[in-house]
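Lay summary. Proteins are chains of building blocks that fold into shapes, and those shapes determine what they do. In this project we predict the shape from the chain. Here is one chain we studied, written as its sequence of building blocks.
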Amino acid sequence: MSVDAHKETLEFQTEVRQLLNLMIHSLYSNKEIFLRELISNASDACDKLRFEALSDDALFEADSDLKIRIRIDRKARTLTVSDNGVGMNREEVVENIGTIAKSGTRQFFESLTGDQAKDAQLIGQFGVGFYSAFIVADKVTVETRRAGLTAEHGVRWVSDGEGSYTLETIEREARGTDVTLHLREGEEEFLEPYRIRAIVKKYSDHISLPIELLEGEEGKEEWQQINSAEALWARPKNEITDEEYKEFYKHVAHDFEDPLTWTHNRVEGTQSYISLLYVPQRAPFDLYDRERRHGIKLYVRRVFIMDDAEQLMPHYLRFVRGVVDSDDLPLNVSREILQHNKLIDTIRAASVKKVLGLLEGLARNEPEKYATFWREFGKVMKEGPAEDYANRERIARLLRFSSTHTDSEEQNVSLEDYLQRMKPGQKKIYYITAESFAAARHSPHLEVFRNKGIEVLLLWDRVDEWMMSHLTEFDGKPLASVAKGDLDLDELEDEAQKKQAEEAEGEYKEVLERMQKVLGEQVSAVRISHRLTESPACLVLGEQDMAVHLQQMLRQAGHEVPISRPALEINPGHPLVRQLKEIEDEQRFEDWTRVLFDQALLAEGGHLEDPASFVRRLNGLLLGLGGQ
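And here is the predicted shape, written in a compact code that computers can read:
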């Protein structure tokens, strides 16, 4: 869009209109948070200018004294929050205010319940603080100029929050942004200096920039600093209250809710730095957006350097929020330098250990809180064993699963729980992966394990198959899929059962050969099963093969997947399998063989290549049975 002087009226993005209406009604009981959000945005703008000016000092325009100012005008019934930060140009105003430039918008609105309290939490989780101004204002005016642009390139944005906004190019000497709220009737409390002071003290005292309020009699007003302007993370832990920690989290994470937990650490010696790291209560909507940068704010000697420094935290801990402040990095550090900096590697390794220790303490001492954490971030933590080899054992202890011990869909079984319940003589940790909880729970592969009372972990998240390819043992015990490879129950299988299986191999030798001939290249082998007690047949993959449901999913996404040939195992104790021995008609034998194979494939979450033929065969066989 051109920056030529002109005024136009533009429509809000549909999602913004919905959000404004929702916010005004859902957050009204906690309306004072609008000031916290505007101050937080102003602080971010100043931080960004300070960072950009490291490489271009001219952006300061001979004014490097960054601050936030609040002005009350009782006659006009306005409250103005100003900053001399980086400011915005016309395109940035449209992008940042006229639209919601975030992924997960649709999921956000689908999650709304109509319950104002719950929806207020979702709004905070979505992170749209600017729009909270319309809780107390029936009109908002934003005047801004991007640092480095000439004075005639300012922008004025005006809206009543209903459905549209006007955008106008203006002359503006000062860089930065003024947000002016035209207060609704009944909101006079926000024209009182004592009320503004109280809100700033409650929510924004930790902001490291001075926040000034214009006070005094008319004609004698003076700017008074109303916050301590001291970086909270730099203060001693014993001087910081839990409420201060929580309010700082809301500022740094742009979240309306309190954090789940946090850890504050100061390291001194050959390397000196401070970290204040938080675990949120709820996953953000863009947690799985690969384009979205997640991470930690990096400061050097209290000077903001960059947002979302992903080098400070591995991808599987991308939900962690907070700050790291180093005394040893150069002020002009870049993302490229961070990638090859030994100090950053040290900070990262130590921060990961702190977060894992924090989660271990939560799991050990506050299991209900940890259950909340796992529901929100469990799938992300499952990426850990593949990404972080050094901490794989610690991550494994934090993992939670469903299992046949309870048959509950809730993932609350740890690997340590499993070890404590292992049968005497059991040498492996058994698990199964499937496309859903129901598919895992009812898999025919579990039959012999249920029969012997052996616990099996039930995994059905999409990440599980990939995770288990990297998590091969725990506490010296190998993890084994019950659906892959030859089943070896070691000492859990008694001699009588082994002898019975050997006899069945001989008895069904001809049947196995005939079935192998029918199926040909579709299977690697047809053999007697040691794992089935109720079902007639199942498919068994090789040790290194990918689960059938995952193969299907990847193919549908357009990926090339190596062709795997499973083994078909049959249950000699099942009536259908016993009947195969009596069938002499080759066509009828082929139909039964293919139906058993297709049934086994469906049970694995696979898709039939020719569903119509399956239906035709099955109907023909059913008609044949009816005529007998």
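What the prediction tells us: The chain has a mean pLDDT of 86.
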